[in-house]
Amino acid sequence: MTPRSAPSAVICGVGSYLPDKVLTNADLERIVDTTDEWIVSHTGIRERRIAADDQATSDLALPAGQRALQDAGIGPEDLNLVIVTTVTPDHFFPATACIVQDKIGARNAGAFDLVSGCTGFVYGLSVASQFIENGQMDYALVISAEKLSCIADWTDRSTCVLFGDGAGAAVVGAGEPDLGILAFVLESYGEHGDLLRIPAGGSRMRINEEILARHDDCLRMEGPELFKLAVRGVPEVSEKVIAKAGLTNSDIDWVVMHQANIRIIEAAAKRMDIPEERLVVNVDKYGNTSAASMAIALDEVYRQGKLRRGDNVLLVGFGAGFTLGGAVVRWAK
Ligand code: ACO
Question: What domain range is 148 assigned to?
Fold first, then answer.
């Protein structure tokens, strides 16, 4: 790999937050016509976390961000930027990132939200790293947070069993060359946007009684189509980003894939010839937390003491848009 002269952007702290309430598959059997056996065999999910009624997305993002700051050993006033990636913001505006910037005390930081569905963490890291590498900023906080329980259709068994709430965060700062965020690939296939969306509530379709009766203010998904796109797209984007980082699949120590479905994770890993022991999996405990999923999984594997300095981590995901995103990170902590 060509040594880089510009400062490299490294992840210098991570954190996550999961709400306390656990919703098990047995609980869901009492809400919709489903079974634990179906959910486990089709998705690998056993339980998920659900935020309290009075917890908005910013309330999940805040503790995740605070934990990442603590892990990085910096204070909120050291931050120059706060990015929140989410499909479930507190409001249309102000941005959830501005709410977090205020509550966390990042008084020297700009803030904005970024919407790229479940690839939000990779997209957020890619944006943050530009400001670090070009020397315009010292530290950026990327928080990926979701309260998907508030957009789930709790009468639709084909979707409501899949999702959970949570948040994960990373502090991005300058580090030693050849460590940190080595490469990105960001892709978008807008022609597949209808496969995963909330039909109403935006400027296209205002909410009225009829919309509410049809639950068109809730998440709608064509699961099998997304499944096929993901199983094909994840290996393709992984191959591109690994090559861009100057590495091969065998150099990858950990794969942190978007946690949507264990069958997608395993099928994509098989196509990439990545052995099971290098996969980070927590979909069984938290379900699909959209943008937050890779950030939570990265924090978990780090706090389990498994990541070593110099390990190559592949972050790769797919999501609403349809977006794909991959990043190779050489662990710098
Ligand atoms: N319990 C019991 N039966 C169910 C349930 C349920 N919760 N949900 C669906 N079924 C039934 C269906 O009605 C169908 O019955 P039928 O054959 O009598 O019509 C049968 O199970 C099979 O349904 P499929 O939708 O074909 O099931 P599939 O094996 O494709 O699994 C799933 C569905 C889990 C949604 C899968 O397609 C998937 O994971 N897709 C990808 C979804 C995804 O990743 N979404 C997120 C992407 S972006 C983001 O993360 C926000």
Answer: 8-177
Same domain? For 161 and 85 the reply is yes
User: Which residues, at least 6 apart from 27, have a Cβ–Cβ distance to it below 8 Å?
Assistant: none
Catalytic residue among 98, 218, 258, 261: 258
pLDDT, one tens digit per residue, over 142-173 is 999 999 999 999 999 999 999 999 999 999 99
Whether 324 and 318 have beta carbons less than 8 Å apart is answered as yes
In the chain, the number of structural domains is 2
Closest C-alpha residue for ligand 1 atom 10: 158
Q: Which residues pair with 324 in a beta bridge?
A: 187, 318
* Residue 91: active-site member: no
Residues 145 and 266 in one domain: no
Question: What does the alpha-carbon distance between residue 165 and residue 290 come to, in Å, rounded to a whole number?
Answer: 9
**Do 67 and 300 contact (CB within 8 A), yes or no?**
no
Same domain for 192 and 137: no
